[in-house]
Amino acid sequence: METIRTVVLILCAYAALVAQQIQFEGLLPFDIDKASTTADYYRYFKALAPMRQPDSKPLRIVYLASQESAVREYGLPEWGGGGAIGRDLIIIPTINKPFLDLSYAQVTRHELVHSVLSRAYPSFHIPRWFHEGAAMALSGELSFEENIVISKALFTGSILKLSSIDSVNGFGRNKADLAYSQSHAAVLFFIDNYGIDVLPEILNAGRKSGSFWQGVYNVLSISPDEFEKLVHASLSSKYSLLFIFTDYYAFWILIAGLFLVAVIVTIFRKRKQLETMEQLENVEQPKIEEPQKILHFKHLDNAPEEYSYDEEDDDDRNVLSDDIELEEDEEDQDEEDDGSDDFHKRK
């Protein structure tokens, strides 16, 4: 019985210590559970620093109802969904839409990862992109919006250098969305290709050598430039034209563009056809001259030897021919009469 009582007392003392480890202040959003949030803190510590004990100092999580006070008092960017201030304070405004359409529970877990990294590696500089990428990967952020953001950046050639993400607090909202999305993709590249255990290996190797990138090289034999190229190639293979088919406005803009191109091509073809037809009509057709028909006149005084045939004078020609035949018949009759008279005279 004494042994059981001792175990129960130890568990109660540990539970009380854990309860004091995370302190919640302000009006908590409906999706925040204190027990699960505390459990997440210890889970992240074990994943990122398995050889170290969790920091025993209290960690305050303050939920603010004013974005202005978060910006003014704690230096959060206007688009910021939350911020880990030093090692012992997390600030989360609850008045605006969470960053990248996340829930407040996701934002809280995200900021917990920042606090764990700061506590586990206090004197070691970790690049901002790794901070943000690890926070997004471990907190389970799987926003489809990230993929569209990266796809648009690939299409427009606006992918960021990972080193430039150190200045993310000075970025506008759209550029910050891209910075966080790329950071997430870069850390997922480590996890997908080498496993999640590679994260603490890199961090420990970097802490010992005094340089994060030296730690990456010691563990994976990859230089900063090589890593940038590998991540860029991975993003291109996955997300190149994704936004065209998933973004509502981009899809309809594409359809309108294709329709416009089709109209222009149709108009151009019709113009070419009309020009070709006009050229064919303007070509002079060779004139075929019909042979002239000649009529010979007999026994007409002062008549021309030839008469040219003209189709337009068909009727006149026919009349003329009839007249000529009539006159010839009359002359033959006269000759017969003269011959008859001579015959009678000879008798």
List the helices and strands and how they pair.
Blueprint: H1 2-21, E1 22-26, H2 34-48, E2 59-64, H3 67-74, E3 83-85, E4 89-93, H4 104-120, H5 128-138, H6 144-156, H7 173-194, H8 198-209, H9 212-220, H10 224-239, H11 242-246, H12 248-282, H13 314-346
Helix pairs in contact: 2-4, 4-5, 5-7, 6-7, 8-9
From the structure above, extract its key features:
mainly alpha, Neutral Protease, domain 2, 2 domains, four-stranded mixed sheet, 13 helices
Describe the structure.
With 347 residues, the protein is mainly α. The chain folds into two domains: 2-253, Neutral Protease, domain 2, CATH 1.10.390; 292-347, no CATH class. Helices cover 62% and strands 5% of the residues. A four-stranded mixed β-sheet has the order 1-2-4-3, sandwiched between helices. Helix 4 (104-120) packs across helix 5, helix 5 packs across helix 7 (173-194) and helix 6 (144-156) crosses helix 7 (173-194). The chain is elongated and about 115 Å long. The model is unreliable at 6-17, 311-326 and 342-347 (pLDDT under 50).
The proportion of residues in beta strands is 5-15%
Q: Which stretches of 5+ consecutive residues score pLDDT under 50?
A: 6-17, 311-326, 342-347
The helix-strand sequence is HEHEHEEHHHHHHHHHH
In one word, what is the shape?
elongated
Got a strand count? 4
Question: What's the total helix number?
Answer: 13
Q: Any idea what the radius of gyration is?
A: 51 Å
Number of domains: 2
Mean pLDDT: 77
The largest sheet has its strands arranged as 1-2-4-3
How far apart are the first and last residues' alpha carbons, in Å? 191 Å
